[in-house]
Design goal:
With 159 residues, this protein is α+β, with helices and mostly antiparallel strands. The protein has a single domain (18-146), classed as Roll (Thiol Ester Dehydrase, Chain A), CATH 3.10.129. 18% of the residues lie in helices and 30% in strands. It has helices spanning 40-54, 60-65, 137-143, and strands spanning 18-24, 72-79, 88-98, 102-111, 114-124. A 5-stranded antiparallel β-sheet has the order 1-3-4-5-2, with helices on one face. Strand 4 (102-111) and strand 5 form a beta hairpin. The longest helix has 15 residues, at 40-54. The radius of gyration is 16 Å and the shape is globular. 23% of the residues are buried.
Length: 159
């Protein structure tokens, strides 16, 4: 099996819109060594992806009512260095690739200027019966749009 490379360490390509969200590492997210448990990074990137969509005015309930769903079909995290409680992190999210039936979100998790992890998630576009379908043009337009200033809220989880 060939695993696609993670190309997130340098951030989004010029002209690609992204969002950054702050996260404070919570004690419950750490393991016995006091570092962030590897599974917690998937929660961080999901939070960033949801915020990315909200900041663009996406309404997932409306998409679902139209039979447009986006289950995660692939996820990968590359760990570069450890994070620990109570580090302040930032997760940057952008659309790395969109095909006719899927969207790949890329992520960088940073502590200051240090990239501590890179990740991607690939989401398939499916209908109510979970059959793949084309990503609607209006959904693609939302995914590639810039943040709407009124949608950007300082959301940081609490300790």
């Amino acid at each position: 099996m060939i695993v696609p490379p993670i190309a997130a360490s340098e951030g989004p390509k010029p002209g690609v819109t992204s969002s950054r969200i702050p996260i404070r590492v919570r004690f419950a997210e750490t393991d016995l060594m006091g570092i962030v448990h590897h599974a917690s990074y998937l929660i961080y990137v999901e939070e960033a992806r949801v915020e990315y969509l909200l900041r663009r005015g996406a309404n997932y309930a409306d998409w679902a009512a139209r039979g447009v769903h986006f289950p995660v079909i692939d996820a990968r995290v590359r760990y570069r260095t450890a994070a620990a409680f109570p580090d302040r992190l930032e997760v940057e999210c952008w659309v790395g690739e969109a095909t006719r039936v899927s969207v790949r979100f890329d992520y960088r998790i940073l502590r200051g200027d240090t990239v501590i992890a890179e990740a991607y998630t690939t989401l398939a576009c499916v209908d109510h019966t979970r059959v793949p379908k084309r990503v609607p043009p209006d959904v693609l337009a939302v995914l590639s749009s810039p943040e709407k200033p009124e949608k950007v809220a300082p959301a940081e989880n609490s300790t």
